[in-house]
Amino acid sequence: VKTKNMELSEAKTAIESSLPNFSTKDLCSLGGQTTWTFATSEHVFKFARTKKVAPLLKNEKKISAKLTNELPVEIPHSITSREWSALPYSSYPIIHGNALNPNLLFGAHGTSIAQQIGELLTSFHIAENSELTNKQDSNVTVDITDKETFSRLPVPMRFAAGYALRKATTLLKPERPSLIHSNLKFHHLHMKNDQLVGLTGLSKARIGDIAHDFSSIFAEVGWKGIDDVLRFYKRPLGGKFEERVEFFYWTAPLHDINYA
């Protein structure tokens, strides 16, 4: 069931009621797909749109705590959790900077920016560690996608899509599962004075295939951009790297549908 948009006044009331020490001066909306996101000059506030999104906010807090001081950029920290209208929301100190413009990778500072992204992903893609987050079995992911997304399609198309997804998944098993961001859109990369200073959007981070993160780069800047970043990336890519990147590029929207 689609929920109505959260108004700015509602967010302000929620924050002032449950976080009285947090200022709501100049509160503005930042939109968001799975959360209603608002911000002031000091804090970001993320409200879950549905109960299904609640685990994502918990995951973001868990991942942020584990990665503190492990990355070359700032990430959300000191995350505070509250509840409003039976749904959770979280807040953290804002990371100042502008969203990375994809065109900058092809500009005068493109090599430096590609290097910073490559170094960031090298640090982020640590080897699988059960203490960081639960590994999500690919077969479970496919079953959920088939049930929750493809069930909305006409029957012949549903079976065809489900078969294609299962076949592709069996061919593209990650050789070295690692912690991945899983939602590495460029608006989650924060720049200041041509320097990468922050990384946000950690709510979907999980153990998975590194090609998933590179598929987000592919969506923004194509293979040319990926090749530039790979010059500075120090982790093994595994076999069929290009096929895996394109697989995640084409299936990425399915996750957004599930959490819509």
Automatic annotation (TrEMBL):
InterPro entries linked: Aminoglycoside_PTrfase, Kinase-like_dom_sf
Transmembrane regions: none
SUPFAM superfamilies the record matches: Protein kinase-like (PK-like)
Pfam families tied to this protein: APH (PF01636)
Domain called Aminoglycoside phosphotransferase: residue spans: 42-218
Record protein name field: Aminoglycoside phosphotransferase domain-containing protein
Species this chain originates from: marine metagenome
